[in-house]
Amino acid sequence: MERVSTGIKELDGKIEEGYPRNRTTLLSGTTGSGKTILGLHFIYNGCSDGKKCAMIATEETPEDLLSQAESIGLPLSKYYKNGVLAIERVYDERAEYIKDVLAFDITNIDELQSNIIGLLDRIPKDTEIVLIDNIGVFTLNMSTNEFRAQFDALIHGLAKKNVTSVIILDSASDERTGGIAAYSVYGVIKTLIKENPYTGSKERLIEILKMRNTKTQLDPIRFEVTSNGIVLLKK
Q1: Where are the beta strands (DSSP E) in the chain?
Q2: How far apart are CA 177 and CA 145, in angstroms?
């Protein structure tokens, strides 16, 4: 099976040289655990390789994401400016729509937060690499069955487009939907913050929970976020 680099050489070595090509991998994690940064590594690597890339930003503005990438040594701005990277402003659109709706005293805005399938229409033609961050914002008013149906349709649609995709889902939304997203995707990687019982200090960890057709390790991988991005630590 062909692979697409995660953008972190050491992590590639843990999953047979990267994410499976033309498949979807789910990144789940708690707040501040590094899941978005892990996704930015993936997108930056794709842009650097000359692949047409797209980010669907549901929780941050493109400017904030680009600034965050720059701060960890991933200069994505140049790819955004030259068109190699497209960023869909879903966060901006959601914020403006809610503001307009509330101005007319309309409080039923559930539909705005439930159109997961519609994300497929936001992916430009000939895109090869896709990052969706964070799909959890669409789950707030969804039943588990509705989420599963729409999420399955999204994964199927991404496969038909022949894109290699990473979808970020925050842990709270993952728990609220019963953890069923993991069954639809090819791979699942979890980031978390945990206290080291020996040192008493908190550490960031990566767990490879699932990666089909791939030999993986079960032990969590410690990592740090530095000015040069994510660095895996030795045991």
Answers
A1: 3-4, 19-20, 24-29, 53-57, 85-88, 129-133, 164-170, 187-195, 202-211, 221-226, 229-232
A2: 9
What the chain holds in terms of domains, given with CATH numbers, is 3-232 (3.40.50.300)
Query: Do you find a cis peptide bond into 228, omega within 30 degrees of 0?
Result: no
Q: Which residues pair with 83 in a beta bridge?
A: none
State how far Cα 221 lies from the chain centre: 19
- For residues 142-173, one letter each, b for 16 or more C-beta atoms within 10 angstroms of the residue's C-beta and e for the rest, the string is beeeebbebbbebbeebeebebbbbbbbbbeb
Contact 4, 164 (CB under 8 A): yes
Q: Can you list the residues of the chain whose pLDDT is less than 70?
A: 91-113
pLDDT digits (tens, 9 = 90+) for 172-214: 999 999 999 999 999 999 999 998 888 889 999 999 999 999 9
Alpha-carbon span 46 to 7, nearest angstrom: 8
Q: Hey, what amino acid is at 69?
A: A
Determine the Cα–Cα distance for residues 181 and 169; give it in Å rounded to an integer.
9
Q: Kindly state the tokens that stand for 226.
A: 């530095």
Contacts of 226 (CB under 8 A, 6+ apart): 72
Question: What are the tokens at 220?
Answer: 């969590």
Distance, CA of 192 to CA of 196 (rounded, Å): 12
- Judge if pTM exceeds 0.85: yes
Per-residue confidence (pLDDT) for residue 115, from 0 to 100:
86
